[in-house]
Design brief:
By secondary structure, the protein is α/β, with parallel strands linked by helices. It contains 20 helices and 29 strands. 48% of the residues are buried.
């Protein structure tokens, strides 16, 4: 069963709402503006749903009309308010000097402010109201700015953290000010009473898809007497407040949700929601040592939990949870695809690590006790796997054998971990400061001792990171300045059958190391490689020929922003180091199934081991090999030596990592490297076994 814990991004559509939408399309398809029977039926439905919304929102007066969603409602409100501010300015009335919005507001709000401020030629300063460490507005600041504010925008509850705004405090700070007030009610709908009338809120947009209705339907409340300018004019629908034929199916669906909410028997009462939150917090704390909540002591929506686990990045947790079919998001859903730090947590001044590791879990008011119990069990399973794989702060009981070469990346900077599971030793090449903690944890989790830290370049920042790693792992004591236990001249470490040697020939201040096996140089950790799509001669390669450099030796770069992974040494001592064309590596589902049915191809799962461990049994594809992307370099030579006509099909969760692996292999000369398009997320075929032979 999928455990959907991303209700703040969107909710599923209530079955009664689905039926209502279908019924509206089948029988109630009339145009509410028509005066015949079909039109009248549709009009009746629209009026009924509006009446229900007025009751649920506590808005007996003022305008309440249907929109496409909250973004439209926000734009309509901002356009209305700013048009009024321009009118006041042009009439010589007391002119506003600033537009204010909460620093943690949904991006639609500042975007709309900037847009209409410029479009209407107001050019007022747009200022963010600071928030404290709990995410609550600085009311003293707001009180001081209120006299000169033209419009103030403050959300009722935050979509990332669930923090509830002090609307009474804000109303108080605005008392006596001529400012108009917009309250984004999206995350509060069905959970908090906004007291729209009592608080004299001017505009309040709402969204159906956060409240079990489909996407494309929303509501905007406008206080009686508040200035209004329509965003859409047209056929005079919604009494001229919003042109365009009404979305009857959406309105019918929203109506079904509002009726269910009013009936009160489907939605969980507040006490149950609070108990569910407490259960989830307990399960998370037990499963992930070092977990902190990102909302401090502020009052929060009971349905939202934003947390971070020290030393475990949000990307890792999201991959782990998704593999376990637990759907959560990192930061906000809109920014999740971009892997940017959350501006909400930044505005709250949370430490960098808490922001980098932030995960948002949000459940719905329809989720009952059995669902929450199942969610807790699944989270506990994720925690167990993380501990077993040595990725939590606890050392695992069993140490899994590491691949020979593991690559960790921060931005474009690549760091290589050369490991020997048998001797329990590891050598790290080119660490960067941000990777010191993950490397330390990685070594700890695999019961590996750090033997040496090597750098391909002499630079203060590189040196500092190397010393931090030595200190963090106990390779040397802080401040002693003692060198590594390994000295390149005296000692020749052997790592998993590969001899590590220092290679000559590079300019001063640069170094290169080679991993040699059977007298052949298999890998060269070469530092910066020249960026060129055309094969480039690298004069220093001649020096290395004496050390076993051959056609096919893999050159590993220190920086790899393009996803090159490795360059392959050509016959004439040259290598091309640009990605060139983005090779068409995508294999669609039908082609993939055809290959599987023939029993053809080498199927390589490039997800990390912990993702495979938590996978719901019986799902996905049973791989021929499992090689996480971080360990890809260890397996590349083996695939390159194979029959090039054997298709190698990489797959992962979404098709992103597998595409990187397939492109890297294609570039290095394998003509039949593929990536399963859309990854396991789109894979619907029954599990097929391809004689497992797990590598990682
Ligand atoms: N405001 C808040 C607080 C939200 O969470 C969202 C959606 O994420 C929006 C506005 C935008 O809503 P819609 O998707 O209906 O345009």
């Amino acid at each position: 069963m999928e455990i959907y814990l991303d209700a703040n991004a969107t909710t599923p559509v209530l079955p009664a709402a689905q039926q209502a939408a279908l019924a509206a399309m089948a029988d109630g398809f009339g145009n509410p503006s028509s005066i015949h029977g079909s039109g009248l039926k549709a009009r009746f439905l629209v009026d009924q749903v509006r009446a229900s919304a007025r009751r649920v929102l506590g808005a007996p007066s003022g305008q309440l009309f249907f929109t496409s969603g909250a973004t439209e409602g926000i734009h309509t409100s901002v356009l209305s308010a700013l048009s009024e501010l321009r009118r006041r300015r042009d009439a010589g009335e007391c002119a506003a000097q600033a537009l204010l919005y909460g620093a943690t507001e949904h991006k639609a709000v500042p975007q709309a402010l900037h847009h209409w401020n410029a479009m209407l030629g107001l050019d007022l300063p747009v200022l963010a109201i600071p928030v404290d460490g709990n995410g609550r507005h600085d009311l003293a600041w707001l009180r001081a700015q209120a006299p000169k504010a033209g419009l103030v925008c403050t959300m009722a509850a935050n979509n990332e953290t669930g923090v509830i705004s002090d609307l009474d405090g804000i109303a108080d700070a605005l008392r006596g000010s001529a400012a108009l007030w917009l309250v984004d009610g999206v995350q509060a709908l069905g959970k908090l009473s906004l007291q729209l009338i009592e608080r004299r809120i001017d505009y309040a947009p709402f969204s159906g898809h956060k409240f079990y209705a489909p996407k494309g339907i929303g509501l905007l409340y406008v206080r009686a007497g508040a200035p209004f300018t329509p965003l859409l004019t047209g056929g005079g629908q919604e009494a001229g407040w919003r042109g365009g034929t009404e979305n009857i199916a959406g309105i019918a669906a929203l109506g079904a949700v509002l009726s269910a909410w009013e009936a009160g028997d489907l939605f969980q009462p507040p006490a149950a929601l609070a108990a569910h939150r407490a259960q989830l917090v307990q399960a998370l704390r037990e499963s992930f040592p070092g977990l902190v909540l990102n909302c401090g002591d502020a009052p929060c929506l009971p349905t939202t939990l934003n947390f971070a686990v020290r030393g475990v990045g949000s990307r890792l947790l999201l991959d782990l949870f998704d593999a376990a079919e637990v759907r959560v998001s990192g930061g906000s859903a809109c920014s999740a695809a971009k892997a940017e730090p959350s501006y909400v947590l930044q505005a709250m001044g949370l430490p960098e690590w808490q922001n980098q590791a932030a995960v948002r879990l949000s459940f719905g008011a329809l989720d009952g006790p059995e669902f929450i119990a199942a969610a807790c069990a699944r989270l506990r399973r994720c925690g167990q796997v993380l501990r077993a794989r040595g990725l939590s702060s606890e050392a695992p009981a069993q140490a899994y054998a590491p691949p020979l070469v593991t690559r960790m990346q921060h931005g474009s900077a690549c760091c290589y971990l050369l490991a020997d599971g048998d001797s329990g030793e590891c050598i790290v090449v080119d660490p960067v400061a941000e990777l010191v903690e993950p490397i330390t944890r990685w070594l700890h989790g695999r019961h590996l001792a750090l033997r040496a830290v090597l750098c391909t370049e002499e630079a203060p920042a590189v040196d500092a990171a190397a010393w931090r790693l030595r200190e963090a792992t106990g390779l040397c004591r802080a401040g002693t300045g003692a060198a590594d236990a390994w000295s390149a001249d005296a000692d020749r470490p052997v790592l998993a059958g590969h001899e590590l040697i220092v290679l000559p020939g590079l300019p001063r201040g640069r170094q290169a190391w080679g991993l040699r096996q059977d007298a052949k140089l298999r890998y060269v950790l070469a530092g910066d490689l020249p960026q060129s799509a055309a094969p480039t001669r690298m004069p220093w390669l001649d020096h290395w020929a004496a050390h076993g450099a051959v056609s096919g030796t893999l050159l590993l770069p220190r920086a790899d922003g393009a996803g090159l992974f490795a360059a392959r040494l050509g016959d004439a001592g040259s290598a091309s180091t640009c990605m060139g064309d983005d090779n068409a590596v995508a294999l669609d589902g039908a082609a993939a199934k055809a290959l599987l049915a023939q029993g053809a191809g080498l199927w390589v799962d490039v997800r990390e081991a912990y993702e495979r461990d938590v996978q719901v049994p019986g799902r996905g594809i049973a791989a021929s090999q499992s090689v996480p992307l971080s360990g890809l370099l260890s397996a590349l030579p083996q695939w390159l030596e194979q029959e090039v006509h054997t298709p190698v099909v990489f797959y992962c969760r979404s098709g992103n990592r597998s595409a990187q692996a397939a492109r890297a292999l294609r570039r290095l000369g394998h003509a039949s490297a593929w990536s399963l398009a859309g990854g396991l997320a789109l894979w619907s075929a029954p599990a097929v076994d391809c004689s497992p032979e797990s590598v990682a």
